[in-house]
């Protein structure tokens, strides 16, 4: 038993109030799935003694098996091994009785990594950077809404201070942050206990919408873990405060959507930022990376916008990108090069919604950037504001088109395993078919008597 395992068991030993823990793995939709186990079985979970069907990572958003899954019907739905990721147990203080989550990932029976586990997919991309002597430095920005939990449709929450619903898109309002001071204090305390580097919080552009930045780290896997665990903390603490936190891409049709912005740079073996050449424009390596990101964008949009609702966010004049372009200090562009000191030169990828899987998002962003660096192609000219050239291609703006682009994308085989690509596409097709079969109330009110 290694010392880290001993530390986790000692941590549990000091908390006799914890009688059971969750053992969880992240699926392709970014949803944690797993088991509740008595605390006496924690050692077994930490030492790779738990098993679960390999198909667990590739169910649809409702938790149904994928009809065409090769893991279920062709191979007998066999088990894999749940291995501990090494991340500390996530305390879950928001439940009625304190517990914790043991973060796990999947291995095959042989002990080899299971390639359709999204965390394993990111690990495979990061191995390529290690082989080249490059280290990604990554930070994330996550937006979310607090909404009234008593309503079936999203409505702004009542202020704990005034008792009145929020009614203004109070961007950067200190007062709005103050109204939910208890919630934010609990979020920061939980993040500190788990080692999630929560930084600045701001009120965003929608009523009840907030953003919390996570500080940069030279451990890209940890950055993805942080984003996943942060979402659980925010949702859990919202429940504790009788609120609902939503990372849905576009919960309101007439308000800002929720994004997951990725900032990254690359360090060489000597710790130098290879995107920095001393100029404001950045190095040729930066531009090669941008070119790779732009080339991969149509095929990878399904990763950034994985759900039906995701495409309501990717609309013109909504502060979300729609054109495949890049620019300096331009928040209308899909790829932004922020200003600041040259030594901190970095790329901001602005396409993903907060509903996307952070492991898959980071895998495709870093994988596409690396492909661009290896090709050494230069990108199109940077754009100013929203003055996109007529020749600019557009990000797929509907789910069906994005699914087709994902399946035909030439760059994705260099990033994801054939199994993951097959299962992810099949999952999205199945979800699309379910939504397409639904007749909405709005359709009835429009057509039932008029046509």
List keywords for this structure.
451 residues, Creatine Kinase, Chain A, domain 2, 2 domains, eight-stranded mixed β-sheet, six-stranded mixed β-sheet
Explain this structure to me?
- The chain has two domains: 3-114, Glutamine synthetase, N-terminal domain (Ubiquitin-like (UB roll)), CATH 3.10.20; 125-416, Glutamine synthetase/guanido kinase, catalytic domain (Creatine Kinase, Chain A, domain 2).
- The protein is built from twelve helices and 14 strands.
- Helix 3 runs parallel beside helix 9, helix 7 (284-304) packs antiparallel against helix 9 (358-375) and helix 7 (284-304) packs across helix 10 (399-408).
- The model has no long low-confidence stretch (mean pLDDT 93).
- Helix content is 33%, strand content 19%.
- The N and C termini lie far apart (70 Å).
- The protein is an alpha+beta fold and 451 residues long.
- The strands form two sheets. Strands 7, 8, 9, 10, 11, 12, 13 and 14 form an eight-stranded mixed sheet that branches.
């Amino acid at each position: 038993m290694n010392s880290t395992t001993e530390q986790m068991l000692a941590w549990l030993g000091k908390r006799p109030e914890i009688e059971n823990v969750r053992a969880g793995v992240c699926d392709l939709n970014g949803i944690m799935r797993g088991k509740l186990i008595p605390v006496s079985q924690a050692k077994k979970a930490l030492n790779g003694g738990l098993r679960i069907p390999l198909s667990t990572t590739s169910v649809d958003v409702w938790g149904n098996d994928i009809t065409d899954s090769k893991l279920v019907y062709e191979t007998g739905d066999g088990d894999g091994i749940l291995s501990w990721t090494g991340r500390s147990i996530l305390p879950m203080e928001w439940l009625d009785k304190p517990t914790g989550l043991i973060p796990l990932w999947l291995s095959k029976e042989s002990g080899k990594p299971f390639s359709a586990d999204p965390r394993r997919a990111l690990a495979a991309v990061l191995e390529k950077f290690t082989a080249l002597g490059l280290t990604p430095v990554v930070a994330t920005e996550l937006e979310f809404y607090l909404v009234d939990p008593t309503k079936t449709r999203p409505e702004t929450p009542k202020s704990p201070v005034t008792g009145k619903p929020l009614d203004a898109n109070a961007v950067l309002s200190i007062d709005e942050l103050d109204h939910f001071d208890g919630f934010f204090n609990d979020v920061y305390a939980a993040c500190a206990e788990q080692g999630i580097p929560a930084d600045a919080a701001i009120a965003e552009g929608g009523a009840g919408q907030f953003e919390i930045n996570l500080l940069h780290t030279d451990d890209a896997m940890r950055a993805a873990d942080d984003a996943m665990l942060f979402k659980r903390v925010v949702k859990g603490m919202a429940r504790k405060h009788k609120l609902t936190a939503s990372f849905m891409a576009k919960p309101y049709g007439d308000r800002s959507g929720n994004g997951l912005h990725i900032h990254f740079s690359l360090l060489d073996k000597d710790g130098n930022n290879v995107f920095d050449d001393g100029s404001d424009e950045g190095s040729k390596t930066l531009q090669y990376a941008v070119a790779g990101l732009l080339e991969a964008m149509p095929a990878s949009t399904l990763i950034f916008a994985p759900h039906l609702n995701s495409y309501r966010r990717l609309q013109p004049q909504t502060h979300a990108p729609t054109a495949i372009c890049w620019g300096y200090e331009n928040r209308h562009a899909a790829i932004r090069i922020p200003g600041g000191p040259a030594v901190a030169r970095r790329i901001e990828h602005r396409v993903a919604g907060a509903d996307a899987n952070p492991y898959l998002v980071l895998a495709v962003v870093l994988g596409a950037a690396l492909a661009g660096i290896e090709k050494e192609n230069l990108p199109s000219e940077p754009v100013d504001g929203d003055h996109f050239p007529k020749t600019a291609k557009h990000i797929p703006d509907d789910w069906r088109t994005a699914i087709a682009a994902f399946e035909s994308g030439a760059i994705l085989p260099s990033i994801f395993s054939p199994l993951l690509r097959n299962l992810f596409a099949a999952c999205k097709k199945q979800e699309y078919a379910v939504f397409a079969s639904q007749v909405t109330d709005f359709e009835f009110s429009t057509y039932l008597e008029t046509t």
